[in-house]
């Protein structure tokens, strides 16, 4: 007999007793996610090959030498410093990976690449017949160990030691033979294929000027948006693709780094219009009014001079040919962030809460309706959309028993960009 604690699915028990189900109060989960994730191919001559590895803003600032082979202040990572002005997480892939590892008689570089040639090992024999083995990257000492034999050496972040050698004093032995692979369209395709398993990417970027490779990134991003449902944008240089998926940087390929981080981190309730460029690259910013107007009409993302500052002209993408279903608003990246957030949030709620779990009946559809309203309420509270009528959000049964259809109307809020003022002077 169930004397308390028995549970039921239907009320059809034959034995006397108490059957109790404890369930949580239904709550709406909005699923709005943070932004700030970029995917990019990099070439630093150091790091894992053939795989994506993550770098957070804090990791880059503290452990740049270990992760990338270069100190945070090095010219080699100048672009990454621009990126991490705003980017929170980078899904990085070595475009120059797959080369040879540098080596010497004492060991082999941890990673393939030309940076391994800047590693040096110094061995000093002490009065106690031990050996102090130091590892340098350039002029920076990154490790020191005191051992009696090579078998006691521990591999560090830069070199894997040969534990069989006989240690003798060495003033400094450089590793040699490290090489980088030259990137190609195939390299970029491999990177894009790996990115397909990452659903958190806000922006993917290519800093080069090869139109064929830029077109590859654009086509991949459009496919991810339209067919896979991963809502992201790509930042490219001088690539007029006439699509909301592509942000077309005008000034310089160097600017792609900063724009990628800026756009990835931009919130649904903010625009990058008039934001100050605070990066390290120099590029042309002095344009005439006619040139700026032409750039806007062509869907170009431009940095221009305002006094002594460099500022974003308009937060727009490369979409220029409007249609009945995609009007002027779709040129604005803030609009794209808002509708992408809605699409992603509703998809996340549906797949995590409803897919395969909730019956497609009036009660189930009412629950889904409430979750959609909760998403819109949060966007309204953030100032991303204007006040909406919940009666205009309709969740109905689809053409087959397992499908539902949501129809709704929203008004996106965009940041002010134009002021028209008429003043009567008496």
UniProtKB/TrEMBL annotation:
Protein family (similarity comment): Belongs to the myoviridae tail sheath protein family.
Chain ranges of the Phage tail sheath protein-like beta-sandwich domain: 99-180
Protein name, as recorded: Phage tail sheath protein
Gene3D superfamilies: 2.60.40.4290, 3.30.1370.220, 3.30.1490.360, 3.30.360.90, 3.40.50.11790
Residues of the Tail sheath protein subtilisin-like domain: 200-318
Domain of life: Bacteria
Pfam family, one: Phage_sheath_1
């Amino acid at each position: 007999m169930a004397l308390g604690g028995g549970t039921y699915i239907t009320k059809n028990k034959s034995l006397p007793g108490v059957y109790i189900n404890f369930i949580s109060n239904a709550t709406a989960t909005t699923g709005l996610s943070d932004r700030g994730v970029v995917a990019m191919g990099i070439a630093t001559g150091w790091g894992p090959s053939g795989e994506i590895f993550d770098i957070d803003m804090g990791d880059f600032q503290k452990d740049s030498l270990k992760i990338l082979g270069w100190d945070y202040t090095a010219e080699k990572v100048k672009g990454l410093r621009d990126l991490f002005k705003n980017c929170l997480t980078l899904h990085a892939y070595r475009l120059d990976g797959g080369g040879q590892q540098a080596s010497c008689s004492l060991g082999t570089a941890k990673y393939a690449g030309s940076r391994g040639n800047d590693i040096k090992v110094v061995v000093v024999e002490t009065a106690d017949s031990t050996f102090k083995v130091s590892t340098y990257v350039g002029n920076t000492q990154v490790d020191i160990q005191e051992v009696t034999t090579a078998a006691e050496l521990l591999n560090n972040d830069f070199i894997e030691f040969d534990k069989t050698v006989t240690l003798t004093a060495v003033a400094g032995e450089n590793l040699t033979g490290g090489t980088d692979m030259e990137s190609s369209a195939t390299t970029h395709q491999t990177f894009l294929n790996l990115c397909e398993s990452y659903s958190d990417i806000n922006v993917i970027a290519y800093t080069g000027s090869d139109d064929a490779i830029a077109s590859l990134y654009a086509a991949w991003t459009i496919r991810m948006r339209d067919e896979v449902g991963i809502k992201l944008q790509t930042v490219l240089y001088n690539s007029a693709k006439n699509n909301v998926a592509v942000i077309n940087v005008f000034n310089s390929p160097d600017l792609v780094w900063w724009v990628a981080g800026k756009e990835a981190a931009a919130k649904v309730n903010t625009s990058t219009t008039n934001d100050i460029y605070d990066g390290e690259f120099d590029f042309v910013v002095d344009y005439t009014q006619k040139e700026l107007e032409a750039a806007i009409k062509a869907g170009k993302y431009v940095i221009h001079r305002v006094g002594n500052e460099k500022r974003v002209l308009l937060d727009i993408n490369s979409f220029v040919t409007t249609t009945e279903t995609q009007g002027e608003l779709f040129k604005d990246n803030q609009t794209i962030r808002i509708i992408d957030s809605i699409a992603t949030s509703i998809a996340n709620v549906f797949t995590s809460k409803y897919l395969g779990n909730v019956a497609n009946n009036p009660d189930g559809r009412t629950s889904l309706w409430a979750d959609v309203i909760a998403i819109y309420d949060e966007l309204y509270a953030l100032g991303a959309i204007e006040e909406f009528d919940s009666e205009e959000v309709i969740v109905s049964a689809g053409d087959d028993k397992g499908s539902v259809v949501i129809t709704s109307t929203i008004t996106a809020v965009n940041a002010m960009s134009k002021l028209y003022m008429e003043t009567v002077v008496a």
